[in-house]
């Protein structure tokens, strides 16, 4: 699967861009935020991608940040949210705003996106509120954003594999890191985080 493209911005449209990678032009569908982050035609750019395949279509979705791609995948896991609606939501809200809205059950904010009615917005925040805490973005009180990669992210993943909800896992690892310090090893983080999560 294509996970990332690095090349030059060749052309843009309302909701798409063509990225030229060594002479091959890739058409990627993007949110308005990603399009503005890519710069102007001729600029060097990198997009994180997600390939969606259906019976009669293959499309490459492009994102300026990997966190935006993570949110897109979460959004499209909700019934009634296809790639077009997912991109519309990410055009209307930053990943931080989306995370805060889901965590607070604020369906009205999600309903600002084109093509999202109150019923669908309610379903999105209800289904994603438990997962919102583990994803980057947002300024939720009491939530800690884990750095991408590294021992802390691996520890969060390990706790999730043991059955803890993403928000619980992220918070427990954050508290473990506070106790052990920045350079803590993954094994130590997991050991202390397990006590925090179970306690």
TrEMBL record:
This is Holliday junction branch migration complex subunit RuvA. Belongs to the RuvA family. The RuvA-RuvB-RuvC complex processes Holliday junction (HJ) DNA during genetic recombination and DNA repair, while the RuvA-RuvB complex plays an important role in the rescue of blocked DNA replication forks via replication fork reversal (RFR). RuvA specifically binds to HJ cruciform DNA, conferring on it an open structure. The RuvB hexamer acts as an ATP-dependent pump, pulling dsDNA into and through the RuvAB complex. HJ branch migration allows RuvC to scan DNA until it finds its consensus sequence, where it cleaves and resolves the cruciform DNA. SMART domains: HhH1. Its main location: cytoplasm. Keywords: Cytoplasm, DNA damage, DNA recombination, DNA repair, DNA-binding. The lineage of its organism: Bacteria, Pseudomonadati, Pseudomonadota, Alphaproteobacteria, Sphingomonadales. NCBIfam families: ruvA. Residues 73-92, 108-127 form the Helix-hairpin-helix DNA-binding motif class domain. GO terms for biological process: DNA recombination; DNA repair.
